[in-house]
Design a protein that fits this description.
The protein has 562 residues and is an alpha/beta fold. It folds into 5 domains: 2-120, Helix Hairpins (Orthogonal Bundle), CATH 1.10.287.70; 133-245, Rossmann fold; 262-349, Regulator of K+ conductance, C-terminal domain (Alpha-Beta Plaits); 351-468, NAD(P)-binding Rossmann-like Domain (Rossmann fold, 3-Layer(aba) Sandwich), CATH 3.40.50; 488-558, Regulator of K+ conductance, C-terminal domain (Alpha-Beta Plaits), CATH 3.30.70. It has 20 helices and 22 strands. It has a 6-stranded parallel β-sheet with strand order 3-2-1-4-5-6, sandwiched between helices. It has a 6-stranded parallel β-sheet with strand order 14-13-12-15-16-17, with helices on both faces. Helix 8 (204-215) runs parallel beside helix 9 (232-239) and helix 10 (247-258) crosses helix 13. The protein is elongated and about 125 Å long. It starts with a helix and ends with a helix. Adenosine monophosphate binds next to helix 13 and strand 13.
């Protein structure tokens, strides 16, 4: 009963529903007028034929004829009467049998069903809701972020303006609420004031509206937006966004960072105070074919946190063997990394340029990041209008082996595939691997689910747009205590958990229980890299950890940490 009342209220409150009901009303009035006119004419013609009938008989005849029931108990004998009967049958068929059901469905039944659906969808979050993350759209980035939030037990809600989408997402088990994004009441209902974050990943213009509207409700809840066009950054700032994420640039930097660029020196991927995490290509160095223990890199001051083998990250163990395609993840201070570089600068150098496939937003950002590192590159771009630097660009389809050959696929140390289509990237990965079995292949992908296929096809590193975007936003939630080094590999800081206080690193069992490795220990304002196994973990001190997503999740669950 309550829900019928709610539907009636929705139906009569909405302007569109009121308009619909008015249209239906007009139609019914016209139909009644028509029936009355026919009843009157029935009497006139019956009079003309010399018969007398009551008004009720006239109304009865009109309805029976219009609905084509035709009992045949009242009939006209004159031609005039027969013509009139034909008119009533035809107009009855049209109005009663065609237009009435259509109008009823269009102006009453459909709005009624919609109001029923509207009455049943959630339009607000509970008053007790807090520290939740609000989203304005479900896309590959927010989908990946929602998965991460679920893993960490963070609550979230997706605000959706379209009813059918609300129902679809609800059926897919997303937590969704219905509301207009340009209506402050929606943000009140979504408990924006108690939220940890509002993430808006709509178009640059729609995000501006979201920021302005939400800021009308409060000016302290952080709002994160993504921008396609760098010009929009300023506009979003003015509209009230607290963090503006330029995903193409982040993606370009991540792709460029993975590239060894044909040398064997270290390339820093993340820094924490004085500790740097860097990748170094082992190809063509004397490290190949020996274990880490035999290589004695500790003598140079650095330690090896892990090894990348064609896209798979393995934690370093003394017995880990360095292969011809291994990229080492080394940890050390600036001085220690310089020491490493001095030692290995003479190895593995390739004078050939890196190949970038695609000169769109991400390809260009990758080129800029390589420029900053002083790495030479050439570009293959299919669309002549998107060429930025004609001197180093080959206009052509990279799927054409001749074009790849022209770019130097046979001798180049690295190819970075940045097209916006995962299928194309998969195809190009296979083609590049076939053209040069030793080349380092770094591929962009849009959806997380394609990462594995790209690795299988031969990519050494894959950066997924969804994951990079989700990690960038998630890191904001964790107040920058997490840095995503590359797809699926994070470095994060945590306080020593109570359970291990007083134990040494060797005794604490963190690695055995969770798979996370301690690569730094913060003590007396100093972040010590690669702490010794006999270091005692003390209360209130910070540890720097490296791990993949599952291990990190397992750490947070095991130690109930935040
Ligand atoms: P964006 O998504 O803005 O980074 O753009 C991707 C770029 O990749 C566009 O400029 C496309 O023209 C380019 N692209 C797509 N497929 C190919 C291909 N097979 N060969 C070369 N360039 C390509």
């Amino acid at each position: 009963m309550k829900s019928i009342a709610a539907q009636v209220i929705i139906l009569t409150r909405q302007r569109s529903s009121r308009r619909n009901l008015k249209a239906l009303g007009k139609f019914i009035v016209a139909l009644i007028a028509m029936i009355m006119v026919y009843t009157f004419i029935f009497h006139l013609i019956m009079d003309y034929e010399g018969k007398e009938h009551t008004w009720l008989t006239g109304l009865y005849w009109t309805l029976v004829t219009m609905s084509t029931t035709g009992f045949g108990d009242q009939t006209f004998q004159s031609d005039l009467g027969k013509v009139f009967t034909i008119v009533v049958i035809l107009s009855g068929t049209l109005f009663l049998l065609v237009l009435l059901p259509f109008t009823f469905i269009q102006f009453f039944y459909a709005p009624w069903v919609e109001s029923q659906a509207q009455a049943s969808v959630p339009k607000s979050l509970p008053e007790s809701e807090r520290d939740h993350v609000l989203f304005t759209r479900l896309d590959p980035v927010t989908e990946a972020l929602i998965r991460k939030l679920d893993q960490f037990g963070h609550s979230y809600a997706l605000i959706c303006e379209e009813l059918d989408m609300v129902q679809r997402y609800h059926d897919q088990n997303y937590r969704v609420m219905y509301g207009d994004l340009d209506d402050p009441e929606t943000y009140e209902a979504a408990r924006f004031g108690q939220a940890a974050l509002l993430v808006s990943t709509l178009s640059d213009t729609a995000d501006t509206t979201v920021c302005i509207t939400a800021r009308g409700v409060n000016d302290f809840t952080p709002i994160v937006t993504t921008v396609e066009d760098p010009i929009s950054t300023k506009i979003h700032e003015m509209a009230g966004a607290s963090n503006i994420i330029r995903l193409p640039e982040i993606m370009g930097m991540a792709l460029a960072r993975c590239s060894s660029g044909g040398d064997a020196i270290t390339h820093t991927v993340a820094s924490f105070d004085s500790i740097h995490l860097a990748e170094a290509n082992a190809a063509r160095t004397p490290l190949v074919g020996k274990t880490l223990k035999e290589n004695r890199l500790g003598d140079l001051g650095v330690s090896v946190a892990g090894l990348w083998e064609r896209g798979t990250f393995k934690l370093a163990r003394p017995e880990s063997v360095v292969g011809p395609n291994t990229v080492l993840m080394v940890v050390g201070s600036e001085e220690q990394l310089l020491n490493y570089d001095e030692h290995f600068a003479i190895y593995g150098v390739s004078g050939e340029p890196v190949i970038i496939i695609g000169s769109g937003r991400i390809g260009s950002a990758t080129a800029e990041a390589l420029d900053a590192r002083g790495v030479r590159y050439c570009v293959i771009e299919r669309d002549a209008r998107r060429v930025k630097n004609p001197d180093i660009t080959i206009v052509g389809n990279a799927a054409d082996p001749k074009v790849l050959e022209q770019a130097g696929i046979g001798t180049s140390p690295t190819v970075i595939i940045t097209t916006n289509d995962d299928d194309t990237n998969l195809y190009l990965t296979l083609l590049c691997r076939q053209s040069n079995p030793d080349i380092e292949i770094i591929a962009r992908c849009t959806l997380d689910k394609h990462v594995r296929a790209l690795h299988k096809a031969g990519a050494d590193f894959v950066q997924s747009y969804a994951s990079i975007g989700a990690s960038s936003i998630f890191n904001l939630l964790q107040k920058s205590r997490v840095v995503t080094v590359t797809q699926g590999l994070d470095v994060f800081r945590v306080n020593v958990p109570n359970d291990v206080v007083g134990k040494t690193i060797a005794q604490c069992g963190i690695r055995e229980k969770t798979g996370c490795t301690i690569i730094g220990y913060h003590k007396e304002d100093l972040l010590e890299s690669n702490p010794r196994p006999d270091t005692i973990l003390e209360r209130g001190h910070e540890m720097l950890m490296i791990s993949d997503w599952e291990s990190r999740n397992s750490y947070f669950k095991t130690y109930n940490a935040s």
